[in-house]
Each structure stands twice: as C-alpha cells, then as structure tokens.
Write a structure and sequence with these properties.
100 residues, mainly beta, Rieske Iron-sulfur Protein, globular, binds FE2/S2 (inorganic) cluster
C-alpha cells in the first residue's frame, strides 16, 4: 500500500532521507530524476543508514562500511551479506509515495 512520505523538494541528491512507519525505519535516496526506497537499518548489525553516505549509486554504511547498490539494495561490499529490502516508489503531484 502506497504511503505518502514527503515532497520531492525535500530530497537532496545522494543524501539519504529518513522516515519511519509503524516503528520501522526506511530511507529514500534521490539519484537525479530517480528516487529509491530501502530499509533504513543495515543488514549487518544495527546502524542507521541515513547517517551513511552515497557515492554515485552506492550507499555506504557508517559503521563497518558495507556497501549497497542504491538501485537494488544488493550488497556490493561486505561485511553485510544480506541485501536491503527495496520498495516501490511513485511520485504524484510532487509528493513521494512508497509501497510499504
Ligand atoms: S552495521 Fe553496517 S556494515 Fe556493520
């Protein structure tokens, strides 16, 4: 079910945007004209990925520097082994909706 999260204007390129819904944390990442939604907590240990950093299309965890593909959530660099869950995003009238 798509939930409204924020306006497109609140997102900055390559800067993780944190939001939570029903006690779960998520991030949005804008890359140019595309917006991706992923789980907000690292799959390795507990780290808040909105405090991580994005270079090109790779998200780096701030704790042990695992890297994830922003577009798919797949692990690019360990120690994380499991991918981040990815969620569908749509934009309507300047609002961002995520299917969570
Ligand atoms: S908690 Fe993210 S790499 Fe360890």
């Amino acid at each position: 079910m798509f939930k409204p999260v924020c306006s497109v204007e609140e997102l900055r390129d390559s800067t993780p945007f944190h939001f939570s819904e029903n006690g779960r944390d998520y991030i949005l990442i804008k890359l140019g004209n595309e917006i991706f939604a992923l789980d907000g907590i690292c799959t390795h240990e507990y780290a808040e990925l909105w405090n991580g950093f994005v270079t090109e299309d790779v998200l780096t965890c701030p704790l042990h520097l695992s890297q994830f593909d922003v577009r798919t959530g797949e692990v690019v660099t360990p120690p994380a082994e499991k991918p981040l869950r990815k969620y569908s995003v749509k934009v309507e009238h300047g609002r961002v909706y995520v299917d969570i």
